[in-house]
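Much of what follows relies on a compact textual record of a protein's fold. The record below shows the convention in full:
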Amino acid sequence: MPKVIENRLIEAFKGRSSFDRDELFQFYSDYEPDLKESTFSWRIYDLKKKDIIKTIGRGLYVISYKPKYKPNLSEITLKLVRKTNDRYTDITYCVWENQWLNEFTQHQTSNQMIIVEVEKEFTESLYYYLNDSLRMDFFLNPGEKEIEFYISESTVPVVIKRLVTRAPISKLRDKKNTVPVATLEKIMVDLFADENLFHFYQGSELINIYEQILERYSINFTKLFSYAKRRKKELEIKQFMNNHIPNILEDIIND
């Protein structure tokens, strides 16, 4: 289906509380006068699969499209990425910044922390390389005491940890650099799983972060729960969402 038609559909129906099958058929008929019912059924299936529309009743739909998340990259993070790319060309790694969460939190933080995750066999190598190359505070797989006494006192701590295999990451382009970043699905799981490192985002703040992310952006729950399973947190995260955002899991099951 041409992207331009999908965009026009979103614009046509996004302000509606609902629209029915006949209205949707009429929309497509303007572009495909000879549209057959069987083809139209596939159009609806495709829209649901792409999370552009959602069924809310028999023959009733609502626009469910939400934009994909694209974070702003700080100059410090770009410096880390450039330095890493200079030395390592074929490793899998990703970066993200805690300040990205300010969009979703009740309490804004001015303290910056950068997380760099890399394949297990390169964690120490990357740590020593960056530590020797840049005047920054680097922490390799920090434990509870390091987090409490050192990371909290650092101006811009850079945490280097092992990247879980098949973790959901995406790639952004910045001038000549490809920047591998953690997706929102990954960040949501990591905030839940690494509660010591992200202790300031627990409790009611974590609930708020989940709610705001789900309200504003398109989330791939298959990726989220698959990654959560690899981190042995799938059931706990589902229980957390069921307790605090109960309509979310219900919508996923119904879809």
